[in-house]
Sequence to fold (499 residues):
Amino acid sequence: MTRTATWAQRAAALDAADPLAPLRDRFLPAPGVVAYLDGNSLGRPVAATAARLDAFVRDAWGERLIRGWTETGPDGPWMEWPERVGDRIAAAALGAAPGQTVLGDSTTVLLYKLARAAVDAAAATDPARTVIVASAEDFPTDRYVVDAIATERGGSVRWLQTPLAGGVTPAQVADAAGSDTALVLLSHISYRSGWIVDAPGVVAAAHDAGAHVLLDLCHSAGSVELDLDAWAVDLAVGCTYKFLNGGPGSPAFGYVRRDLHGELQQPIHGWMGRLDPFTMGPGYVPAAGIRQVVSGTPPILAAVPLLAALDLLEEAGIAAVRAKSVALTEFALELVDAWLAPHGANCSPPANPSTAAGTSRSAGPASATSSTRSGSAECCPTTANRTPSGSAPHRCPPRSPRSTTASPSCATCSRDARQRSSVRRRSRKTVSRQMPWWRPMRSRTPSVRNPADRCSATAARFSGKIDACRVHRPASSAAVTWRWMSALPIPRPRSPSPT
Ligand SMILES: Cc1ncc(COP(=O)(O)O)c(C=O)c1O
Fold:
């Protein structure tokens, strides 16, 4: 029997034993897509979405018209959807009790609202708490939002430097957060490396310093099991268009721990978050509980596909989704070892069972922190200034934050930038020759002007194909099969003879 046939047999056996296999047909087919591993960007539509949207337009919107806001329909009055859908997300994906999660806005807007609320609350009790601790490798919107809040409130951001293939550790947070810290903002799963932050550890470190923690759950919700209440997380936000399969532009969710509802006040005071909005009364009086996080008219139509997707996630259960993700990942890593490693490809982060996704990755390499005053970087927030674990970061000379090249006067920066761009050129050539399925990704590459970012974006896209199934998984990957994965059109290495 050939090696390929052996893999195919194993894949077929794993598919046959998959308890989620029957759910695959509950997703719309995507003709021509062999195995969709981009759920970390946009989840697949569940098949029931089209009928659900049609029924909503005809029956709910079309027939009930404005009465839909207040009359009870199959999913409750629209006015209550922010809390009702929030509670469903909380139960299915967040490990949170009801009454603490709302749906609405985008992740960016909710990040701003909750981060500003935390910063303002901290300053109100202690004016010395003006620092936000955040990761220099976090998703751009998170970095921009904390920068903007620091500028707006006269504070600063203390950036944590992390390896591109790793992420933030509790020890780093303990080092960086102190009596001047208002807020620690982190992504629970790194969008680049797939690193899973030790959430309880990070929360404990931040709380020891008297700071609140805001977790970005964009890559976690619907992907891994979360336990926000038990971890004592203060605040969280996340999108619903990735692993919650809500569709392009579906609304985000925000979580505020119950005991903070009276203490924190978000800054965008709109009529829909007011106590009794239809009195149209003077002045803003926040609604009780989590409702105060709502600002304007809830995005009802945009939430309809999410309801169909939540039905499916509730049926599958997040634990089963995660278990399948881990199992698919292990199989994918075996295939990488067997088929790609002989071509020189490797996994990022390294495929070490004790640190790889699919297992708990709570400890990572320690790295130094650097403090930057908002808007004036003292230290390149790129891989250029990273040093091996534990040593002090290389400090590049000050340069304009708009600079698109490594600092020409810095030998380390320039050398690293040259090396990165040559690796990038080589890996693009090799990868697109050996993995034709990867090629279309290139045409979707956003133009990133900073060469260091461009390089890491390339690496992330490549490793992301592995990470997507490795750390992340499937509500969509209820739609992925092992057979499909083993059928990816990757050419076999020429050297090893069939066994
Ligand atoms: C980790 C993370 N945070 C925030 C965002 C931005 O979310 P939005 O565009 O919904 O504001 C994204 C988008 O992909 C993300 O991956």
Observations:
- The chain has a mean pLDDT of 78.
- The pocket of pyridoxal-5'-phosphate is lined by residues 106-108, 139, 141-142, 187, 191, 216, 218-219, 239, 252 (CB under 6 Å).
- The chain has 14 helices and eight strands.
